[in-house]
Design a protein that fits this description.
The chain has 350 residues and is mainly α. The chain contains 19 helices and no strands. α2 crosses α3, α10 packs antiparallel against α11 and α13 runs parallel beside α15.
């Protein structure tokens, strides 16, 4: 809450008019009106008297808050996402950086914002990506000395990925070695056992289902990396076997249909199998429009149903198609085909 909002809120709660506040403090009524509209601020010598008049402490009146709660950070992250979605990445970036200037020592805020902005570089069409990426990297570097374990580890994971991409392997290894062991034992599992013993079954089920979903998602990521290795070793047969396993896992563990099809896509791209590539690409883009409902699954019935933003699927579809279009010779066999142009017109509105 801004200072002008605090003054207006507590004045009304005290049952005071602007004229009364002005009279008590020896200022004009228009001056109080300007305070509440935010066009000017009270003189610093009036602050203590104003705080006493409104029955608030100075920290409340001056809007001083050392850190934000996790709920406040999550709510602000949603605001930034909506800004990027509706007004463009640049506006969301400016909004985020302004909040960081307001809370320069809130490591959780900075970490959340850096991750969100990095995702925005992927999902949204952004000019001067390198400039924004450098500023995001600078945010991560600010957090390297954070005493918060989660921030400490997240920051290093993100920078390790960056250094690997840049082929800066020595620095990547150095940061990787600094990541603290986050779970010497699986706390979620033991907490669930405790909840079961106390007959708190709903809480235990939700925690275990959430853990299962997290773990199988990680397994799928590992399988995709193994497929990538097999392709780099030119072992197509091994890549196909791994893709079969990943696709079957997506079925067994009731993931989205997108995961079932996408496991094969990097294989057909490597083989330049045009017909199979278009068949998979069409299914993948269609699957991104589907709504995943945990309540209709067997494994995740107790997970809360999040409000699904249909625009997210569209953004992912757009990102996939733009990546293919910008892939040069590697994707030429696809983007030169009229079928790709048709898909591009369908999902990418420029």
């Amino acid at each position: 809450m801004k200072m002008n909002e605090v003054i207006r809120k507590y004045r009304k709660e005290r049952g005071l008019t602007q004229e009364q506040v002005a009279g008590y403090l020896g200022v004009s009524t228009p001056a109080v009106n300007k305070w509440e509209s935010g066009s000017s601020y009270p003189d610093i010598t009036l602050i203590p008297a104003l705080a006493r008049l409104l029955w608030v402490d100075l920290n409340t009146l001056m809007c001083f808050q050392e850190n934000l709660s996790e709920q406040e950070i999550a709510a602000f992250a949603n605001q930034v996402y909506e800004t990027m979605h509706q007004q463009g990445f640049a506006c969301g970036f400016a909004q985020a950086m302004e909040k960081i200037q307001e809370y320069p020592n809130c490591d959780k805020l900075i970490c959340m914002i850096a991750s969100l902005l990095e995702g925005g570089l992927i999902f949204f069409r952004v000019e001067e990506k390198e400039n924004y990426q450098q500023q995001i990297d600078a945010l991560y570097h600010r957090l390297l000395d954070s005493e918060d374990t989660a921030v400490h580890n997240t920051t290093r994971r993100m920078l390790v990925s960056r250094y690997i991409t840049q082929q800066n392997y020595q620095q990547a290894q150095q940061l990787l070695d600094e990541i603290e062991n986050e779970r010497p034992m699986d706390k979620v599992y033991f907490q669930a056992q405790l909840d079961i013993a106390q007959k708190n079954y709903p809480k235990a089920k939700e925690a275990l289902e959430r853990k299962l979903f997290s773990e199988i998602t990680q397994v799928q990521s590992i399988l995709l990396s193994l497929i990538d290795i097999a392709l780099k070793e030119e072992n197509i047969q091994q890549a196909e076997r791994l893709a079969d396993i990943a696709s079957a896992a997506a079925d067994v563990f009731e993931l989205t249909h997108y995961g079932k099809y996408s496991t094969y896509f990097q294989i057909v791209m490597a083989e330049k199998d045009k017909e199979r590539a278009f068949a998979l690409l069409t299914k993948m883009l269609s699957a991104l429009q589907e709504k995943w409902e945990p309540k209709k699954t067997t494994l995740y019935q107790d997970l809360p149903q999040k409000e699904q933003d249909s625009s997210l699927g569209n953004m992912l579809a757009k990102s996939i198609l733009q990546e293919i279009r910008d892939s040069g010779e590697e994707g030429r066999f696809l983007w030169e085909d009229e079928r790709f142009a048709k898909l591009y017109r369908q999902y990418v509105k420029e």
